[in-house]
Amino acid sequence: MMRKGMVVLIEIPFYIFSGLAILFAGVILFTKNLLYGAFSLVGTFLCVAAIYVLAQAEFVAVTQLMVYVGGIVVLLIFGVMLTNKITDKGIITSSYNRFLGAIIAISLFVVLFYGILKINFGAVKGQSADMNNVNQIGVELLTEYLLPFEIAAVVLLIALIGSSVISGYKTKETDE
Q1: Which of 104, 7, 113, 111 is nearest to 54 (CA)?
Q2: Treating both helix axes as pointing N-terminal to C-terminal, what angle do 4-30 and 34-54 enclose, rounded to 10 degrees?
Q3: What DSSP letter does each residue of 54-80 carry, written as one string?
Q4: 176 residues of the chain, pLDDT tens digit each
Q5: 17, 54 in Cβ contact below 8 A?
Q6: Checking phi first, is residue 88 left (phi over 0); if not, alpha (psi -120 to 50) or beta?
């Protein structure tokens, strides 16, 4: 059972990381430099991973770090940096459809806020605390959800092999 002082100690970092995540996301939206946007994306993902840790979702936090920060964003940054070296010009982008984007963002916020208001937090709080969530996920993946887990692994392996085969093809140019 958490005491009132403990809740306040968790709320303060939550608000700090939430504010930083919103700030980094705003930089992503309004910057015209792709490299700054990529680094802001790293900051956003790190703040979201910290929020997952505060919510005691360690598995999701580690997955966030490994998949997004460790893989996708690093590839994006190297791609931007290598493309920048080829053309010797800074990569600048512009935003289109800001009005439509604002409408979609506000609509999504309203739907998610409504969903949060409908959550029964009392039922979530009463769940078993015998195992942490990493152990629960591991046990469920290797017992109840073993077949879908293996199918997902095979599909990812096929996608990896397919992408390496496609990238290996070279078309012959003929002089006509």
Answers
A1: 7
A2: 160
A3: HTT-HHHHHHIIIIIIIIIHHHHHHHH
A4: 455 666 678 889 999 999 999 999 999 888 888 778 888 988 999 999 999 999 888 888 888 888 888 787 777 777 776 665 555 565 566 667 778 888 998 999 899 888 888 877 666 555 555 557 777 887 888 888 888 888 988 898 888 888 777 766 666 665 55
A5: yes
A6: left
